């Protein structure tokens, strides 16, 4: 049986307000790639193709960050190319996640149960303009905001260029504030 939860809190979007309609709104989507695709080519081309498919199959892509090269996390040795996009759609969060997973698979992503491996494409919903959400239908599980986005510079750095004023509904901090907290130098204790 599917379980879902939505609270009345909202993410402040670029227009300065949350979306009032029940399951419509804007999604902040993170994109990453660090492997060539045999037919499409470089990670840049993979991300560009993924953005095209998101626009065709999910909703209007209203903003795209610059593509940023970032160091790998975990055992992968290849640098990643990361980006973020704002997607507006009337689809519910789990439907959007399923569509993103289908785009990953279509572009060659194989989920082998290993975190931090090289991959042709990684797509994640980071935030939804209508607030927090949790759902598990037995096949796909989704928690919004993304549970660990606050600790990921490779998500926050591109996201701040297009959604810097969006607020994390759990902490109340903007993407810009979260990025500053994550990247500010820490002094060693004396």
Automatic annotation (TrEMBL):
Originating species: Novosphingobium decolorationis
Family in the record: Belongs to the HPPK family.
Domain of life assignment: Bacteria
Pathway connected to this protein: Cofactor biosynthesis; tetrahydrofolate biosynthesis; 2-amino-4-hydroxy-6-hydroxymethyl-7,8-dihydropteridine diphosphate from 7,8-dihydroneopterin triphosphate: step 4/4
A Pfam family assignment: HPPK
Keyword Signal set for record: no
Name assigned to this protein: 2-amino-4-hydroxy-6-hydroxymethyldihydropteridine pyrophosphokinase
Domain 7,8-dihydro-6-hydroxymethylpterin-pyrophosphokinase: 29-163
